[in-house]
Amino acid sequence: MANRLAPLTPPFAPDVAAALARYPQRDGVLLSLFRTFANSVRFLKKGVPSLLDADSPLPLRAREIVILRVTANYGCAYEWGVHAKVFAKAAGFSPAHIAATAEAGEAGEAEWTEAEARLIAAVDALCARAALPDALQEGFEADWSLEQQLEILSLVGAYHIVSCVANVARLPPEPYAVPFPAAAA
Predict the structure, then answer these.
(1) pLDDT in tens, 154-175
(2) Are the C-beta atoms of 66 and 166 separated by less than 8 Å?
(3) How far apart are CA 118 and CA 172, in angstroms?
(4) Residue 107 Ramachandran class (φ > 0 left, ψ -120 to 50 alpha, else beta)
(5) Where on the phi/psi map is residue 65: left (φ > 0), alpha (ψ -120 to 50), or beta?
(6) What is the Cα–Cα distance from 122 to 153, expressed in whole angstroms?
(7) What is the pLDDT of residues 84-130, one digit of tens each?
(8) 3-state DSSP call for residue 24?
(9) How many other CB atoms sit within 10 Å of the CB of residue 182?
């Protein structure tokens, strides 16, 4: 018997329903990602920390640069498309910014401030090696407080996990999601 990771469908067992109650919905619907997490109540409760709150030490724009870049680095069209749709306007992203987050290399460096370009390079290094070369480390330390640095590292880790789950489950994009650029796929 195969154990295929896939979103659960309601009705949910009481313990699953209780754990899912803390997850946000969009138009009254739980994302298929969250319903995939529901294959394990433990994972629902402990698997991915929720860092999308008002208490974050990062500006929303920086947070979304990290999330979009991590999910693009891991080819996670599902989560990239959700964030590109839901948070782009609030983050002040133009369509060019959104597209650039999925580009390899310098990610449309001309579209970003110097600090944002350094953040993108740092995220790329963290995704590739879980470390920063000296030149990026210096910029990272200059641009971000200790609390912000830890938040960025946590986001990279959390969205690595999200990308793994969504990619292994082969989740199709949510109906409202921004399509992942074909060149990045």
Answers:
(1) 999 999 999 999 999 999 999 9
(2) no
(3) 31
(4) left
(5) alpha
(6) 10
(7) 999 999 999 999 999 999 987 665 555 799 999 999 999 999 999 99
(8) coil
(9) 7
